[in-house]
Amino acid sequence: MKVKFGGDEVTLVGNQVAVGEVAPDFKAVNLDLSEFDSKSLKGKTIVYSVVPSIDTGVCSIQTKFFNEEASKLGDDVAIVTVSVDLPFAQKRFCGVEGIDSAIVISDYRDHDFGKKYGFLIDELKLLSRGIVIVDKSGKIAYVEYVEEVTHEVNFDKALEKLKELI
Fold it and tell me: CATH: 3.40.50.2300, 3.30.540.10, 3.40.30.10, 3.40.50.880. Which one for 2-6+21-165?
């Protein structure tokens, strides 16, 4: 799949996911460098908010937006921001920006999420921007791969789908 990054075409590698499919299990790294296992969220509605780098303008907006939403949604919903930033940078960003309701994980080590969900930009080894919503049964209910990585996700459409599920 091709998307654009700053106007230049780049290639997404891995398996692009689609609505109705079972969400692939993956592993990543938590802020404290421990292993994150997506299986730990089974039975919850999950929003994967995917960003190239948490510390840039559009990524920061997306992360703060979904953190605020997470604080309103209760324990049956998990908001997970995924980037390839090192956990040290993510932890600093979360502290400065007050990110305390969303889970923030790093896919830097194995790009497991990026490959299994088809968000890994081959040329940059960053994740593309997008949203994946997984319902409580573990099936993908919503997917957005943003065509121009520097643009925002469709917040309204993602929230509308999320509210249908909870």
Answer: 3.40.30.10
